[in-house]
Amino acid sequence: MEKIKMTTPLVEMDGDEMTRILWKIIKEELLEPYIDLNTEYYDLGLEYRNETNDQVTIDAANATKKYKVAVKCATITPNAARMEEYHLKEMYKSPNGTIRSMLDGTVFRTPIIVKGIEPCVTNWKKPITLARHAYGDVYKNTEMIIPGPGKVELVYTAEDGTETRELIHNFTGAGVAQGMHNLNDSIESFARSCFSYALSTKQDLWFSTKDTISKKYDHTFKDIFQEIYDTEYKEAFEKAGITYFYTLIDDAVARVMKAEGGFIWACKNYDGDVMSDMVSSAFGSLAMMTSVLVSPNGYFEYEAAHGTVQRHYYKHLKGEETSTNSVATIFAWTGALRKRGELDENPELQKFADCLEQATLNTIENGKMTKDLALITSIANPTVLNSRDFILAIREELKHLYQ
Ligand code: NAP
Ligand code: MG
Description:
ten-stranded mixed β-sheet; two-stranded antiparallel ribbon; alpha/beta; binds NADP nicotinamide-adenine-dinucleotide phosphate; binds magnesium ion; 21% strand
């Protein structure tokens, strides 16, 4: 069989620990036998980040701007323990944070649904994708402990020196106060990322805030979304047969619990933090969650939502067998390959991505899976495979599906 050709490179960001081991097996066993892989490779493993003073992360983000599609392996975010373990010159920032701020993007997290791994919420039949705004609000707040009676105000000093004041509270005793902010530019980018991702995946978009209580702050979010929708996306949404739907956050929560899924839920920073953990754990497993960073300029970076699975890696280093789930990492590749195929009008590449996803799901539905899934599956007597054998089982399935 002739291998699939790729006209434009895909940006490939390698990573750390157990996911780096899986990365190599996935490429060798599932991708390279079928595709003339055309990638521009960046080694985001911590050793090489340290060697290049993290320049490699910046180069990888710039390459993503150039080629528009990237696939990323999980990477270590250094902490004190890692400083010692890897003899780091400094405590580098999280690569995901660096890339996200360079691409000005929003992260969309989607569970992978497969028969045999049932969500706790029984009416969820299709994935619910969560989009979290990644700038400002309580994550960039300024707080004050108020020790006793006194007045707390918000003061805005314009460039010409004029002051505008709003009373927060006349304290008669001790308490607390906090100031937070957001930027129209950032909210606009968030809105555009959400609308373009909804179009690109042909799913309805929900957005929720607490605008009835927060009549200026949250209402600005609501207004910016509506304005951008009306002027830039309404026509395209109608043509695609999808809708944009705004509702209050508490109403959204109630509706999500009753819904069957199949939509994107955009949330402010804090709501997204909390709701994404709730939705992902209710869907079953962190190892079955994909994540894509979408920039308002149409750059896409695909990855698994989980980390480098450090505990399994140390077992692997000791020569012990591991059963690490590679599904989310495989889906990061298929997401990126399908998007590459769409942009380059390469239907064969898109077909391959579909087949590889189907082969992965079939393997699990046939009862072959890694240990984490075997613990939660409703399939009787599953076969537990080690990290490599699970990928090889997918390859067997792929041989039948893709020809
Ligand atoms: P983790 O790698 O997500 O793993 C936490 C635990 O979840 C594992 O020990 C394992 O449980 C289970 N798990 C996660 N993924 C799994 C998979 N694919 N297959 C089977 N089990 C899986 O989180 P962590 O251990 O807290 O973090 C390790 C490193 O990852 C850290 O250095 C962190 O900075 C980094 N990280 C990177 C990213 C990213 O690049 N996007 C995201 C998060 C964390 P059991 O041990 O019980 O089997
Ligand atoms: Mg959280």
